[in-house]
Design a protein that fits this description.
This protein has one domain. It starts with a helix and ends in a 7-residue tail after the last helix. It has a two-stranded antiparallel sheet. The protein has a two-stranded antiparallel sheet with strand order 3-4. The radius of gyration is 23 Å and the shape is globular. It has helices spanning about 1-5, 10-25, 30-50, 70-80, 80-85, 90-105, 110-120, 125-135, 145-160, 165-175, 185-200, 215-235, 240-250, 265-290, 310, 315-335, 340-350, 355-370, 375-390, 395-410, 415-430, 435-450, 460-470, 475-505, and strands at about 50-55, 60-65, 295-300, 305-310. The chain is mainly alpha-helical. It is built from 24 helices and four strands. The relative contact order is 0.16.
């Protein structure tokens, strides 16, 4: 690819340089080890230097950096290593979901589904369709990171386009468009509850509804789809020549050519659809019917925020929503002849996750250390104070919020964790200047999403990298970053401008 891109212009050459430099970095697991060492050293320096900030939730208290290299810290790291691994955010969703996904993939359901999607989607609309689906996938929490990249890659490979480009486009939708959606997701009540609590510091009767940003996020969904389509067509896809694409398709062992469904595949898809309707309908009834198991709200474990009950059951729901159609397809297509076939396919799926488990262990330790040291809290509060110190007008202040949050997001990936510390600073401060809590939250959500695709501490980055390595074994973090950084830069500028125009026009953010 380097030889081809050398003659394609400065942007392609720059991205190729980013890829080459990035791929010389150590293995992702090693990077998390090095980052963990850096966290330990910073915790020691911060504790000795007395780094601290006032707790925005209780100004009478101070949040101080905790030294993880003293006796208590070392004891906590050693005794909590197993818990830190098990609490690694995507571990459960990846492993449990892969049980169902593995059956669906290895019975041939995914291949048949890809053939169907390719046959009914006009070629020119494949890219925007993938980005749009990625943006909307956050209604199922973080499942899009696991499910969509392999499907997208298969679709592009089948029509002779680069699987890596497909992974980049759909990952931008999933990560870069994380806050947008055509529907209300579990993120909306989670953030609005934190915003409401912060708003009551200046208005004891303040109410912030989960739907307070819905109109803007609804409009942002097609807007980000267009942004992703533009970046893919103009920047990312031109980097790959015909030889690059052929090599990727061959290395991934993907099926290529005009998709034609066989009679068995057609019958299998009908059976899988019926199974999906039955299982999905049952879950929908349990979520909507009063008094049924998944209806109503519950406290999110470890927080005081209420979320829909169904959102906390999303992982086993995903398992069954893939397992049932996969089994139905396998039975009709005769890929499954007994229960042993199902168990064997689940085992094959788990056997491919060894590399992920290695990284998950070290990433889980580093993220837990970062949080335990209070460096995340100090960073979040300091970022909020930096925005306050700028003293801009409303439009520049909105842009400043977006930019600062994008920077913080590179180090603190959890949307709710960042907002828990930023909301008590930004909402009262900007509210006193006449800015509504809903507008402040909206600016935060834009900033929180834009750098998600390249956030080094994002626990899902390795999931995307593993999908890329199926089609390019030599790919590393440099490959991933070079694919996704154009989306990040363009989305940051375009989406921020979209918010400023929306606010200047006086359009309501939600209802």
């Amino acid at each position: 690819m380097q030889a081809d891109t050398a003659s394609r212009g400065p942007v392609a050459r720059l991205l190729s340089l980013v890829e080459r430099v990035g791929n010389r970095l150590p293995d992702p697991a090693t990077l998390f080890v090095l980052l963990g060492v850096a966290v330990l050293v910073l915790s020691l320096i911060g504790a000795k230097a007395g780094w601290s900030v006032a707790d925005p939730r209780d100004p009478a208290k101070q949040i101080v950096v905790d030294n993880l290299l003293d006796a208590d810290g070392i004891r906590w790291m050693l005794t909590g290593a197993l818990r830190n691994f098990l609490d690694f955010p995507p571990l459960a969703i990846v492993l449990v979901a892969m049980l169902g996904i593995g059956v669906a993939e290895r019975t041939g359901l995914f291949t048949a589904l890809i053939k169907l999607l390719v046959s009914i989607t006009p070629s020119m609309l494949l890219t925007p369709a993938l980005v749009f689906i990625g943006v909307c996938s956050n209604i199922a929490s973080d499942a899009g990171y696991v499910v969509l990249p392999p499907l997208a890659a298969g679709m592009f490979a089948m029509v002779g386009r680069s699987p890596l480009v497909a992974i980049a486009a759909v990952t931008f939708g999933v990560a870069g468009g994380f806050s947008a959606n055509v529907a209300i997701s579990s993120l909306d009540p989670l953030l609005s509850s934190l915003t409401e609590g912060a708003a009551r510091a200046i208005d004891p009767n303040a109410v912030v509804q989960p739907t307070c940003n819905y109109y803007f996020m609804l409009a942002s969904t097609p807007f980000l789809t267009l942004v992703g389509w533009f970046v893919t067509a103009r920047i990312v896809e031109p980097r790959f020549g015909r030889a690059d694409i052929d090599a990727q398709i061959a290395e991934g062992g993907a099926e290529r050519g005009r998709p034609r469904l066989t009679a068995e595949e057609t019958r299998g898809l009908v059976a899988a659809t019926l199974a999906l309707v039955v299982v999905g309908g049952l879950f929908l009834a349990m979520a909507l019917a009063p008094g049924w198991p998944l209806s109503g709200e519950m406290l999110r474990p470890g927080t005081t925020s209420k979320v829909p009950v169904w959102s906390e059951a999303i992982v086993p729901m995903i398992l069954l929503l893939f397992l049932a159609p996969g089994v139905a397809y396998g039975l009709v297509s005769r890929e499954i002849r007994s229960d042993r076939c199902v168990a064997r396919r689940m085992g094959d799926s788990m056997s491919s996750m060894g590399t992920y488990l290695v990284l998950a262990f070290f990433a889980g330790q580093t993220i837990a250390w970062f949080k335990q040291s209070n460096l995340t809290s100090v960073l979040g509060v300091t970022g909020g104070e930096a925005i306050k110190a700028m003293g801009f007008g409303e439009a520049p202040m909105l842009a400043a919020i977006v930019v600062v949050v994008t920077l913080i997001n590179l180090f603190v990936s959890s949307a709710s964790a960042k907002w828990a510390f930023l909301a008590p600073i930004l909402v009262p401060m900007l509210g006193a200047a006449g800015m509504s809590p809903e507008l402040v939250q909206c600016a935060y959500r834009v900033g929180d999403s834009c750098t998600n695709p390249i956030a080094p501490l994002s626990p899902y980055l390795v999931v995307v990298l593993i999908a890329i390595q199926r089609y390019q074994k030599s790919a590393g973090l440099g490959t991933l970053i070079a694919l996704l950084v154009p989306y990040t830069i363009v989305a940051l500028v375009a989406w921020t401008g979209f918010l400023l125009v929306w606010n200047a026009a006086g359009w309501p953010l939600g209802f």
